[in-house]
Please model this.
Amino acid sequence: MQKGILTVISGFSGAGKGTLMKTLLSRYDDYALSVSMTTRAPRPGEIDGKDYFFVTVEEFEKSIAEGKLVEYARYVDNYYGTPADYVFEQLKKGKNVLLEIEIQGALQIKEKFPDALLLFITTPSAKVLEERLRGRGTETEEVIRKRLERAATEAADVGKYEYIIVNDVLEEAAESMHNIITNSKFATSRNARFIKDMKSGIDSLLKGE
Amino acid sequence: MQKGILTVISGFSGAGKGTLMKTLLSRYDDYALSVSMTTRAPRPGEIDGKDYFFVTVEEFEKSIAEGKLVEYARYVDNYYGTPADYVFEQLKKGKNVLLEIEIQGALQIKEKFPDALLLFITTPSAKVLEERLRGRGTETEEVIRKRLERAATEAADVGKYEYIIVNDVLEEAAESMHNIITNSKFATSRNARFIKDMKSGIDSLLKGE
Model:
């Protein structure tokens, strides 16, 4: 049976991804949060190795060249990526690694690591999504519109994820998310080895070995 | 969000399918056991509508002709099948319907009802499977061999199921099975409608409708 599950989390802005991830991390011992690597400068209060791994452009490009990133992208003038070492170290320890990332990155990861679990966090309805975006009360109409436009694009790709987590009542969504991650270890697609061993084990019994 | 889940259960002889199903039925309110229809005569103590729906060959063939069976098969001189009405009535009530059936029937159901959840119950290893078959102490070598041969055939098709339930510790297997069934409601493959509504809802917001 496989150890930790690489869990990729995407979702609409305002759906509560961050809160859900924090809830799992604080409530259960079996999670680790992937820490991104970036070339941007640390902001006040940000801690190297906790908020990000802060590196130079040279170091980042060396990591790319050496295949040491699970995925990466460049936004404006900075690189952002996911260091593979940390992820695999945690998975080996049996931790489910939570990795928050947008859809294109998520699909990249699934292609490279078919055992990754892709979860999409959504509000119960479009109406609630709008309420949550407005509810913050801190954004201009322009920003809200941009987020809705982005949500419309994302909605077209939700079917590429394995599960949706409908974040209506936080407690229920967190429990459901935890159960889905935990039990994804039992998906036949993640147990080719177990199934193969079972089959050859039965064959051996029949041959009287 | 969809209501009950049609859950098809197969597994190795001796893996504990019956015990697991009984455990779910006794512990949670959200399950119903599918009752098969058959043309064979009731055995002493069997109750019509509980153990089986006992019908005549004419009645059974009428049910086939009218498409009233989810699946059916003929063994020796008798028909066995799953009446659709009962299944859909229970699903509508929000019950997860448990249906124990061998692999060919399971695949038939998945083809007809893509939302069905296919679970395969297994022992933790081939060795334990043999122990459980022998442990009953009531079977001849010939019978045990036949069961192992059948298990070898079944093992080749396990990958067609969505999840394996490894029945090592009954309590854990039952909980895992319950969680898998409950959360399968959140699989994107079972939520095409929700995703579509979400997308058109966001599009409407953007159009200012």
In short: The radius of gyration of chain A is 20 Å. The mean pLDDT of chain A is 92. The helical segments of chain A are 17-27, 57-65, 84-92, 103-112, 126-135, 141-155, 170-183, 192-206.
